[in-house]
# Entry
Amino acid sequence: MSPAFAYYPGCSLEGTAVEYDRSGRACCAVLGIELTEIPDWSCCGSSPAHAVDTVLSGALAARNLGLARQGGFGGVVTPCPNCLVNLRTASRDLDDPDRRARINALLSTPCEGGLPAVSLLQALHEQAGPAALAAAVVRPLAGLKVAPYYGCILHRPPGLMAFDDPENPVAMDQLLEAAGAEVVAFPFKTECCGASYGVPRKDLVMELSGRLLEAAADLGADALAVACPLCQMNLDLRQDQIAASRRRAFGIPVFYFTQLLGLALGLGRADLGLDRLVVDPGPALRKLGTGG
Amino acid sequence: MTVLDLTHSCDMQFVAEVARESGQNLTLCYQCGNCTAGCPFTFAYDLPASSVMRALQWGQRETVLACSSIWICATCKTCTTRCPNNIDVARIMEVLRHISRREGYAPEKQIKQFQDSFLQSVMRHGRVFELGTMMSFIARSRRLADMDLGPKALTRGKLALRARDIHGRDEVEKIFRRYREGLEK
# Structure
C-alpha cells in the first residue's frame, strides 16, 4: 500500500477535463494509490498568474500547500502540468525565508514551508509502475497504435521537475506499453501545443497543435495519449478548427493516458468518461476487439 | 525581420533590474541561438528569443519591453532546458513580461485581456469559472470567439453553466487585494 497523497485536481478537472479526473481517480483506486482531495482547494493561478507576478502566483498555489500541510499530508499529487509547475515553484519559494515572507504577506493563513508535489503520471509510474500495471491488466490494448504526447512543461525545467527525461520522456510510453498498446516513437512528445492562446491568439494554436496532429497522422497513430487538460482541449475540442485551417481531416481521438490505462484495467466506459471526448474514439477502440 | 540598432542609449539600470528580479547572469549569453532554434513560437515573434537576450544585454529598454515576443512566450521552457550556459531564459522572458505589464505596455492586447479575465474569475470564485472567463473576455475584447466550441463542450458535460464559489473565496480575494495594495505602495 502506497502512502496517502493529498490530491489537487485543479480547475480544469471540474470542467473541460472532467474525464481526466474521473479516469485518474479510478486508475489510482485499482492500483492502490490513495488520493484524498484537498478540502476547499483554490485555483493555483495557472499561467495568467505567473505571467503577472511570481509572488501572486506563489500565494495562490501556497494556499493549497498550506491546506495540505494542515491535513498532515507529506505530498501532493496533481494531474495538471500547469498546476504542478505552480505548486513546485511555490514549494521551492516557501523554502526560501525571504520569498516565503513575501508570499505569506498575501496569505490569510501563513504557510510555513514547501511540500513535495508530483504529477499523476509520476505517482502512477513510481507508486505502481509498469510491472504492477501489467500484472493488473485484464483487457490489453493490443492492436492500438498510440502516440504519447507529454506536452511542454510536464518535465521542464529539469532542475525543478526532477523526473524522467526533459527531451525524451518515457514514463507514459512504459505505462502504455505495459497496458499492451503499440507505442509509436513520437518526435513531438514535448513540443508546445500553443498553450492557453486558443482564445486570444487562435492562429498560434492552429499552427502548433496542427503540427502535432499532422505528425501523429503521418506516423499512422490510431490515437494520441495526453497528460494535460490544455493539450487535450487544443487537440480534441479544436480538432475541427485545426482541420479547417490546415485543410486536412484528422479524426484522431485524444485520450487522457489514464483513460487508456483504465480501459486495460477493465474499467467501464462511463467510469472513464470516454463519451466526453469530442473526436469519436469508436473506430480506434474497435481495433481492440472489445467493442467501441 | 527586425534590425536591432544597438547604438541607442544603453540603460544599465534596467539591465541590473532584470538580472536581480530573474536571478540570472545576463552576461553569460554568448548568442549561440539555441533558445531561438528550439522556441516553438519563433515563427510568430517580432524579436527572436536570442535577440531579446542581446537587446537586453545592451540595455535596450524600450525595444525589449514593447516587443510582442515577451507576451507570446508561453513559458514552455525549451529555451531554459537547452541553454548551454544554464541561463533560465524563460524566467527572463517572464520577468520582462512582468515589467512590461507594470509599465503599461500591452502589444498583445488580447493576451492581456484573456489573462485579466481569467484572474478576475479566480478572484471572484476561488476557482476558475470557464464560461464566465469566456464571457468576460468577449466583453473586454468586443470579439466573439469560439462560438463553435460551446455546443461541443456543453453536450459532453464539460462546461459548467454556473460558478460554484469555494468556502475560502474571501481568502483568495484577499490575496489579490493585498497584492494590489503592495503595488500601490
Q: What stands out?
A: Chain B touches chain A through 58 residues (CB under 8 Å). The first helix of chain B runs from residue 12 to 22. The mean pLDDT of chain B is 94. The radius of gyration of chain B is 19 Å.
